[in-house]
Amino acid sequence: xxxxxxxxxxxxxxxxxxxxxxxxxxxxxxxxxxxxxxxxxxxxxxxxxxxxxxxxxxxxxxxxxxxxxxxxxxxxxxxxxxxxxxxxxxxxxxxxxxxxxxxxxxxxxxxxxxxxxxxxxxxxxxxxxxxxxxxxxxxxxxxxxxxxxxxxxxxxxxxxxxxxxxxxxxxxxxxxxxxxxxxxxxxxxxxxxxxxxxxxxxxxxxxxxxxxxxxxxxxxxxxxxxxxxxxxxxxxxxxxxxxxxxxxxxxxxxxxxxxxxxxxxxxxxxxxxxxxxxxxxxxxxxxxxxxxxxxxxxxxxxxxxxxxxxxxxxxxxxxxxxxxxxxxxxxxxxxxxxxxxxxxxxxxxxxxxxxxxxxxxxxxxxxxxxxxxxxxxxxxxxxxxxxxxxxxxxxxxxxxxxxxxxxxxxxxxxxxxxxxxxxxxxxxxxxxxxxxxxxxxxxxxxxxxxxxxxxxxxxxxxxxxxxxxxxxxxxxxxxxxxxxxxxxxxxxxxxxxxxxxxxxxxxxxxxxxxxxxxxxxxxxxxxxxxxxxxxxxxxxxxxxxxxxxxxxxxxxxxxxxxxxxxxxxxxxxxxxxxxxxxxxxxxxxxxxxxxxxxxxxxxxxxxxxxxxxxxxxxxxxxxxxxxxxxxxxxxxxxxxxxxxxxxxxxxxx
Length: 653
Known about the structure:
The chain has 653 residues and is of the alpha/beta class. The model is unreliable at 359-363 (pLDDT under 50).
């Protein structure tokens, strides 16, 4: 009888492929990965011992009995250990065994018992010209142990089926089935040594579906991706130990991407990640588009040392693909679990500080340690998000109206509709400037806009504002609303329902919407204009593209921001001696020139922020068409506005 190692050689070939891919690739230091690493090593030893036992039985008469027994013990013991590790691996997919050790200590009991039997149990050999294999108490025990571990794995698979993905559950079930089938085949045909092949197939299933390092790598940059970052965060949080998340974000990343293209941006990010990994000997993750992150176990001194090296590296331009690149980094360090107790908290903090600009307002403060003040801002932000969600669902908005005085008619003939949150108890009054921005980022601004416009139309219709002498109502629309393809149709339909003409509404066009050549924005503006609606430029004097916007857009009204007026004519609570009003002469030139230019372009002008008689007289003398501000009234609720129209007009006259 010749030595038959076909199964073992085939298994060993597949094993070498898996082992090479695993050990040559980048690995995360998760508990499941550590267990899989041991599984790979144990599988390799098992294959060696499997081939050794086949050879030792072939030369049974020559090989000493104690060597034969020892080889079989190592082969059977390593097989049992592999199955036990696989069971443990599945358990770690749902929770980390390091921190539930008592809970899973029973997982090792079958292995310990089987090893005792392997060491001291009966082991015999069947040898003839056609078949050679081992049997006895030792072999019988390993069948029981394998069956028990497969059963434990199945129980965990069923118990935590809602935690594991469906694909993962099916693949684990396939691996268990394969091992069970191999065990049954070998039980009824002991001479057919299929255990190694089953083990390697189980290892292959596990590697390509649950461990494969390629799932953690960005194809474009070869940096550990967001999924890898989340995986390691969950691992770290599970340890209940302190650590820092250090995030490096780069200012003007969008400019770099626009100027040189996406492929070059990927290259830049890859170079920076390689530098950080090589210098600081730790994994670097691309947690967000312009953000690289590291997990640091050391204290603040280590963070400061890392920051120092990064700032030195980027102090001057760096050459990448023959291009000199200037990067401006901001570093944000978050101490966990003090300020973040789960991975969602980390991304909330990054969203607020990195992507909402909090960390970049102070350009000199390049290294920021997240603290209680920032935590308070984040908690406020999250609270406002929750308030907005409830407000959209439960009619939680009020609309207030600020009167606008007409110089020509010498009366209040229009007003601006402004939205307010009804909830003033949770955290007090929230400025629209604050919650509108949050609503845009949440994606509820379109629905908010529809709610507000319906309220405005309902108020105008129920109080017959047109008969009261109100010629138009000014309604604010954000740039995000203009991007809604259904905006114009939706607003026109609401006007139709309340039987109000388009000429009764003036919509503000924000600078960001006006300069955007997006076809959806342009189409919405055209449709509303065709419906009779007019448009105004808000906050003239605060933007960068106002002149070109005035030429290109169908404006009817230009609204002068108070920042143009107050330096010339300070309100009562401010004096011209203050720093912001020192250069009054230049301010007068700018204001008067702006008014003259707008008038020459044949636009109507609204002066905002008028609070004093001096400001009013000056604006009227310059020829401003409309006046808006606290001089007449603060924004008031609809009923108050309606009741005071006649009162305001009497005072004016």
